[in-house]
Amino acid sequence: MQITELNVSNIVPNPFQPRETFDEEELVELAESMKEHGLINPISVKEKEDGTYELIAGERRWRASKLAKMETIYAVVKKVDDKEQRIESLIENIHRKDLNMIEKGRAMMQLFRKHGILMKSRDLKSHLRDIERGGELSTQSKRVFNVVKKIHNHPRVISRWLEVISADEEVIIDHLATPEEERVDDTTIARVATIDDKELQKKTYAKIKTQNLSQKKASEFVTGIKRLADKKPKLVKVALESELDISFVEQMSEEDEPEVEISKEEIEEIIQKIKASEERSAETLSKPIVQERYAHWNNHGVLMSLPSMCEKVFCPFCGKDGSHIRFTCHPDKTAEEILEQANQNHLDSTNRTEVNDIFADIVKERLAKLKAEKKDKKG
User: pLDDT tens for residues 307-319?
Assistant: First the structure.
């Protein structure tokens, strides 16, 4: 690996990498450290035809070098094509400390897909378990392993990322719409996602959120709910609607199901908590920028299947493969480029408080639909 010194002003950001939110205080601290100690880890770039250098990894360090008013920065110049660059950018993106587990899970799925591994998260988790156990691997598990070792994370950690994105869509949407300081822990969402019944999954999540259970208590509650659903299904409602500890409910008999008595004060307190939570959610959902984020999140989720679908279809008129399928407004864009832009839009929207005019009509439609749904509920 050859390290060279490049002019900071001759380096440009990577168009394939989703834009990051950079903590200004942390950037200033890093800049001060670089002034005193220099750059410890060089950035990586590729040379462009116009003589500039495009970032592959290290945008935070590059930004800090500009804050420190450094004229040059150490870099590793790599010769990579666009596909390799996108893969390297994805790997760099996965290691960002500000990403939540949902974002990491989706980025991981993209990474697998770019290596030609087109499987659902449930199937991928099965291969990750095989890798974690060790021993002889199947051909498919070896392919998964070759991707996993590139990001230097334990298979169990990656499995949790994939677990969380398999949660019911309504759970994920509510989770992302909740202010960060009031959110259920990402690990808890992964545990909730292990409940096969989607309706039960949503009710379990709602109970955990309303009662503000700790990560440990939430995990115990999910385990208990799954056991009850399997062995004592009649008691699931008791566990979800009462204040009884899950371990106590598990010891109850379905035949001797007691009347659960709750004081009027406790009932009123629960009602007020639910109302407050619903009001906060309604207020958050009514914000145009939140609806734009939802639109981009849903759009990207649907488009994630586009590249793999295109590989399986062909034109019924001329026999050309599915890669020729395009949006009529941008016929020059490939399925991969469309997906990249959808992801870019979603991440960009999380860094804005105002709606992008391009998507104003989409936001209006979503808000109108939300208003109609509220009216129907009241009716």
Answer: 777 777 888 888 8
Asked if 201 and 168 count as a contact pair (C-beta separation under 8 A), the reply is: yes
What does the pLDDT average to over 287-292?
A: 87
By three-state DSSP, how is residue 74 classified?
strand
| Residue at a domain's end among 28, 52, 82 | 82
Q: How many CB atoms lie within 10 A of CB 129?
A: 13
149 plus 123 within the same structural domain: yes
Task: Decide if pLDDT at 258 tops 60.
Answer: no
CA gap 82, 16 in Å, rounded: 9
pTM > 0.85: yes or no: no
∠ CA 259-264-266 to the nearest 5 degrees?
Answer: 85
Reference 306, options 320, 318, 323; nearest CA is 323
Residue 366 structure tokens: 């979503």
Secondary structure tally for the chain: helices H, strands E: 18, 5
Residue 231 dihedral angles phi and psi, to the nearest 5°: -110, -30
Query: Residue 94 falls within a domain, yes or no?
Result: no
